[in-house]
Amino acid sequence: MNLKESAADLEFRAEIRAWMSAHLVGEFAPLRHRGGPGDEEAYPELRKAWERELAAAGWTCVGWPQQYGGRGLSIEQQVIFHEEYARAGGPGRMGHIGEGLIGPTLIAFGSEDQKQRFLPGIVSGTQFWCQGYSEPSAGSDLANVQTRCWQLEDGSWRVQGQKVWTSLAQDSDWVFVIARCEPESRGPKGLAFLLLPLDQPGVSIKPIRQLSGSCEFNEVFFDEAVAAADDLVGEPGQGWKVAMGLLEVERGVSTLGQQMHFAHEMELIVEVAKRYGRAADPGIRDRIGHAVCGLRAMRYNALRMLSGGQGEDGRLQLGREALIYKYYWSNWHRDLGKLAMDVLGPVGDVPSDDPAVQRLQQVFFFSRADTIYAGTNEIQLNLIGERGLGLPKEPRG
Amino acid sequence: MSLALTDEQLMIQEAARDYLSQASDSAAVRSAAESEFGFDPAVWRCIASELGWCAVPVAEDCGGLGLGPVELVLIQEQAGKQLLCAPFFSTVCLGTTILQAVGTPAARELYLPNIAAGELTLGVALPQAGVQWQAGEVRAEANGDGWLLSGRVRVVDGASADQLLIAAELAGTSAWFMVSPDAVQIKALETWDGTRRFAEVILEQVAVATRCDEPEADAARGLALARLYIAAEQLGAAQACLDLTTAFVAERKQFGRAIGSFQAVKHRCAQMMVAIEAARSTIYGAAAQAAGQCDTADLQLDCAAARALASDALFYSASEAIQLHGGVGFTWEYDPQLYFKRAQASSHWLGDASAMRGLIAQQFMGNA
Fold it and tell me: Among residues B260, B279, B314, which one has the least CA distance to residue A382?
């Protein structure tokens, strides 16, 4: 065990810090600490410009191999990048679906042609993606996809059906979907993984208003929407394998960045507790102490995940600490939202322009989604019980 | 940066697991708990002399192996898992930690080589109130070149130890003294948790010639480490509760199915694992901090967090173990009761979880 950073790593940290403080200014100054979860609608155009600013200096796709336009950073350096980016108040990344999900998926499963056509747009921060997995009848039971697709004689595909909870579809250029290409198939079999441009007659996007009032999510309807013949990833029928190939594992790296946001939110709670005379309240102090315990647990848990070694395929291995991670942080964050509102008391009841109060209100409302998206609490506990503890599976209908 | 264990650390962990799963199984723990001094001398001899665990944290110039907090945490985790009954906690985790953190050169030279060789056991005072080593229960006053100690304090392994390490209030500050059992009155306590013995030690004008600690030494680091070692033991005990429960619910059938296949049961086991792994990450992280050159304030916060999480995880896991075992969980025969009693007893040593959160809040946000 060794928590010391090498001189090279410390230097790298300083380089990012310097770059952020030199660039997150001027026209980009309003973006500091904006655009995170619950605040996804903030400044979409300016955040796209910020993606190009990052790209110009080579700060997008930092973990990708250099041959695909990435920076080829080691895991340690990726962690450092995400930490310093977040510490500097770097805005929520408009390009994160492209950089974190579809890009790595194409690198692993895409054809050479697909890599050449799609990866540069992600690296340059000019092409934005959204994810079309969930459907009204395919939530926790994600494999129960009903959206259909079929291939015409010219090789192109048509897609018919509906996706839901599609984040930032309104600001995206392309969507990747899983759809059923074998009509009689059920569950994870018989699915195809397709790439579609959103700007076409067969696609319509309808925003969903969330309990917080904002509209980050959408319903996306496909009515004979077209995917080109070359835009099938993997083989027909293998779509589930492609879709699941990169979930979970690579997320570990960006979690240390997420924790910097959490630490910032905790500082805001202390700030408002002092401002509104709640800092001496023993109950509040106990809960703040508890929240700090969680923050330490998450930091060391993430370091444990990243220290778990890499398998023969060079990917991180999933240990017990990785299995609990999503459940832990999402419930911790939800509790933090409640703590923030309890500190604010009556002040919290009124929508506020004060940056600290506004941010904490967003945490309170949006964190209710944290324990639902990307595997609900209930699904997470099943996974932990079955994969982590080897308990027998529940019979399924 | 890495939290991965070295090969040597993995070996220590495995050796502790192998030995204790045999020497400290349920039958051995129950028998030790009913013995006069609460441990089996043969097991203690093996740990102290043959396996050399007492030498693990002791500095090399005092005859030890000079290993660090990580190694001791790994041993403590296994000790907690098996509810090891032995004066290892008092002598090594508490006594040695104090002597190395604040001890005078003379005290280190006098006691540490014997501890490392497994030839000396210490009883160590654990106050019944507060979050410091000394809570004013024993007072020291100058007496010529030495001191006179008076008061009454609870001492871990006080009835069996060769020497007693006592913290006392000295003119508004704190000081450590080594006291011979012959010079004090000792009342062995019958405690609900029979796996760790305590005695009440009564001191009436006990004359001691020297104090063990440097007056200017910083006590915070030793206190933080002691909390970390308690946390590691609690982590192991919590893991044992989960292991017992998982095995039971996978085996026990009702309504024609293993009860562990029902989400109502499975999810509760999963939640135990969440609490345990979060505590484990924090404890390993704090141990890695302690092994490096870290700031004392950072170490204090990490160890307090580790202690709070482990303490809560253990009580939660022990309670759930009883509940999920159903009727047999309430019996003397099944083991959850042993862990439940340790969970409650250990919850307040050197401050309970709520006190830890108070310390953390103080450090994180300062005064109101």
Answer: B260
DSSP letters spanning B163-185:
EEEEEEEETTEEEEEEE-GGGSE
| Catalytic pick among A53, A250, A386, A394 | A250
Residues 6+ apart with CB under 8 A from B136: B169
User: Which pLDDT band holds residue A374 (cuts at 50, 70, 90)?
Assistant: confident
A250 carries an active-site annotation: yes
Q: How far is B38 from chain A (nearest CA, A)?
A: 34
pLDDT digits (tens, 9 = 90+) for B53-87: 999 999 999 999 999 899 999 999 999 999 999 99
The three-state secondary structure class of A183 is: coil
- Chain A residues within 8 A of B260 when measuring between CB atoms: 385, 391-392
Instruction: Name the residue facing B357 among A289, A320, A321 (closest C-beta).
Output: A289
User: For A394, which of B261, B282, B361 is closest by C-beta distance?
Assistant: B261
A95 CA: distance to closest CA in chain B (Å): 28
Residues A227 and A159 sit within 8 Å (Cβ to Cβ): yes
Tokens 């108070």, located at residue: B358
A1: nearest CB among B291, B294, B309: B291
Could you tell me which chain A residue has the CA closest to the CA of B298?
A: A296
pTM summary value: 0.94
Pairwise CA distance, residues A358 & A221, whole Å: 33
Which residue in this structure is represented by tokens 């026990």?
B252
Q: Is the ipTM value over 0.90, yes or no?
A: yes
Q: What is the Cα–Cα distance from A179 to A149, expressed in whole angstroms?
A: 6
> B298 CA to chain A: closest CA distance, Å?
11
* Cα separation values, A125 from A52, A129, A217, Å: 5, 11, 21
With 60 as the cut, is the pLDDT of residue A229 above it? yes
